[in-house]
C-alpha cells in the first residue's frame, strides 16, 4: 500500500473537526494585546488577569484552557483528568525552569527572553529531553535548528516571496487549498479562534421591552493572516510540495511559539520539510512512504509481537513479489498522519511540544523513537484485537489520551527496554535502503506493464 495525498488528507481531517464540547472562558478584552510569551508563561502586563472566569463555586473555577490557549478537554481527555495531571506537571515545570535558569546563568546567557542557548552537548541534550521552559520554547527551537544562520544566508528571501504572492505567482489550486484550511487550523486555540464576544441587543416587543444576546462576528485574527502568508510563500518556494494538508498545523504551531514571527516560521517550516522529513509532504508522498516503511521495519525488529498483528499480508490481495516488497500494512496510513503532522492532533499538545523540543535538537530519529514508544504503550490493546480495521482504530486512538509525557519520554530514550538505541545513522541507512528498494521495485513493475510507465499514485487530488 503506497499512500497518496488524498488518503492522508482523509486521516488528517479527523483532528480538525473534533467537538470538544467546552463552555468557553470569558473572552479576552479586545483592547488588550499579549505576546505569545505572556500567554505561554501566564504573565501579563495588564492590571487584571486576562481571561479570568466570573466567580463560580470553587469546584468549577479551573480555566477551560491550558497554558498555551488550547482547550483542555477533548474527546479523549476530560477536564478532571487534565487538571489532575497538570497539578503535578506544573510542579515539574517549575522545578525544570529553575534548573534551566541556573544553567543559562552558568553560561552567561540571558534568562529573560533569551536569544542564545548553550552549545549542544550530552548535558544540554538531557535538559532538552526533560523539556524546555514553555516561554523559551520558540527561541530554543530557532537556535538549535540553526535559525540565525539560515536567516543570514537567506536574507530578504521571505519578503521577496511575499511580493511574488502579491504579483499573482501563487497557483490558484494552492491558494484555494490554503484558504480552505486556514479556519480549520487549531479551532481549539484562543489565538486562532477567540471566544466570541457577546452583546446585549435591547429590542422592544409587544407588551414591553425584551433583550436577546447577539454574538458579534469576530474579524480574522492576526495569527491567521500570518499563517496565510507563511503557507503561501512556502508553496511558491517549494514547488515540489506546494501546499499539503498538515502544513497548516506545523506552521500554526511555529507561529504560536515564535510570537507570530512569519519569517522565522517560514524558515523552520523549511527545516522540517527538507532536513527532518525530506519528501514527506511532496506531491507523491515519497518521503512519507519511505519513513513509514522504516518505522515498520523498526517495529518488526523491536516489537515482533506487535508486528505480527500489524502485518496484514496485503489485506487478502494477490500481489507480485515486486509489489509485495513495496507494500505497507493497513495501519501505516494512521502512522503516516503522525509523521506528516509531527504528532499534532495525535498526542496531547504538551507531548507534541516535548517531541518538537527533541526534534529540533536531535533530529528525525526522535519521531521514530516516539512512534515506537506509542506502540509499546499500546501493546496490550493492540494484541487484544484481530481485525485489521480494529487494529487501525486502536492505533489511532491510543496516543490521544497519553498525558504522561514524562513516561513517554522515558520509554522513548532509554536504551534498555526502550528505543534509545535507534540512532540517526540507522534511520538514514534504512531510508536509503528503502529508496533503493522502491526504485528497483518500480522498475520491475514498469517492465511488466503494471504501472503503464507512470506511478498512478502521484496524484495531488485533495478530498
UniProtKB/TrEMBL annotation:
Region (Disordered): 20-70, 189-218
SUPFAM superfamilies xref list: Ypt/Rab-GAP domain of gyp1p
InterPro entries referenced in this protein's UniProt entry, alphabetically: Rab-GAP-TBC_dom (IPR000195), Rab-GAP_TBC_sf (IPR035969), Rab_GAP_TBC_domain (IPR050302)
A GO molecular-function descriptor: GTPase activator activity
Protein name (record): RabGAP/TBC
Domain Rab-GAP TBC: residue ranges: 131-363
Taxonomy, superkingdom: Eukaryota
Skewed-composition ranges (Polar residues): 30-47
Amino acid at each position: 500500500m503506497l499512500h497518496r495525498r488524498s488518503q492522508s488528507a482523509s486521516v488528517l481531517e479527523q483532528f480538525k473537526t473534533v467537538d470538544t464540547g467546552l463552555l468557553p472562558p470569558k473572552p479576552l478584552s479586545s483592547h488588550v494585546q499579549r505576546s505569545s510569551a505572556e500567554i505561554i508563561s501566564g504573565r501579563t502586563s495588564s492590571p487584571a488577569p486576562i481571561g479570568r472566569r466570573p466567580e463560580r463555586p470553587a469546584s468549577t473555577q479551573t480555566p477551560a484552557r491550558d497554558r498555551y490557549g488550547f482547550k483542555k478537554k477533548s474527546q479523549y481527555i476530560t477536564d478532571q483528568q487534565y487538571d489532575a495531571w497538570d497539578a503535578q506537571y506544573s510542579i515539574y515545570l517549575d522545578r525544570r525552569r529553575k534548573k534551566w535558569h541556573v544553567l543559562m546563568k552558568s553560561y552567561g546567557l540571558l534568562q529573560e527572553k533569551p536569544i542564545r542557548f548553550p552549545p549542544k552537548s550530552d548535558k544540554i541534550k538531557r535538559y532538552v529531553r526533560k523539556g524546555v521552559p514553555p516561554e523559551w520554547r520558540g527561541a530554543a527551537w530557532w537556535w538549535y535548528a540553526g535559525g540565525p544562520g539560515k536567516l543570514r544566508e537567506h536574507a530578504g528571501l521571505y519578503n521577496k516571496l511575499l511580493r511574488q504572492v502579491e504579483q499573482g505567482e501563487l497557483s490558484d489550486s494552492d491558494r484555494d487549498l490554503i484558504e480552505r484550511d486556514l479556519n480549520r487550523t487549531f479551532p481549539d486555540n484562543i489565538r486562532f479562534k477567540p471566544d466570541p464576544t457577546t452583546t446585549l441587543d435591547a429590542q422592544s416587543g409587544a407588551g414591553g421591552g425584551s433583550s436577546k444576546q447577539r454574538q458579534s462576528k469576530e474579524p480574522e485574527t492576526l495569527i491567521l493572516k500570518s499563517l496565510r502568508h507563511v503557507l503561501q510563500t512556502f508553496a511558491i518556494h517549494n514547488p515540489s510540495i506546494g501546499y499539503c494538508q498538515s502544513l497548516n498545523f506545523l506552521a500554526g504551531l511555529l507561529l504560536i511559539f515564535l510570537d507570530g514571527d512569519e519569517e522565522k516560521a517560514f524558515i523552520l517550516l523549511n527545516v522540517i520539510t527538507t532536513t527532518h522529513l525530506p519528501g514527506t509532504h511532496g506531491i507523491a508522498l515519497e518521503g512519507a512512504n519511505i519513513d513509514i516503511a522504516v518505522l515498520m521495519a523498526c517495529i518488526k525488529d523491536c516489537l515482533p509481537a506487535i508486528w505480527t498483528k500489524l502485518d496484514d499480508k496485503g489485506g487478502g490481495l494477490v500481489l507480485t513479489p515486486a509489489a509485495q516488497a513495496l507494500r505497507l500494512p493497513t495501519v501505516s496510513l494512521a502512522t503516516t498522519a503522525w509523521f506528516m503532522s509531527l504528532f499534532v492532533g495525535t498526542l496531547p499538545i504538551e507531548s507534541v511540544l516535548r517531541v518538537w523540543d527533541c526534534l529540533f535538537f536531535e533530529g528525525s530519529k526522535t519521531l521514530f523513537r516516539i512512534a515506537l514508544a506509542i506502540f509499546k504503550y499500546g501493546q496490550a490493546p493492540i494484541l487484544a484485537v484481530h481485525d485489521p480495521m480494529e487494529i487501525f482504530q486502536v492505533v489511532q486512538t491510543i496516543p490521544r489520551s497519553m498525558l504522561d509525557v514524562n513516561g513517554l519520554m522515558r520509554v522513548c530514550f532509554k536504551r534498555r527496554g526502550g528505543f534509545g538505541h535507534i540512532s540517526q545513522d540507522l534511520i538514514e541507512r534504512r531510508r536509503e535502503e528503502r529508496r533503493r528498494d522502491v526504485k528497483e521495485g518500480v522498475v520491475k513493475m514498469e517492465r511488466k506493464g503494471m504501472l503503464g510507465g507512470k506511478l498512478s499514485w502521484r496524484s495531488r487530488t485533495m478530498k
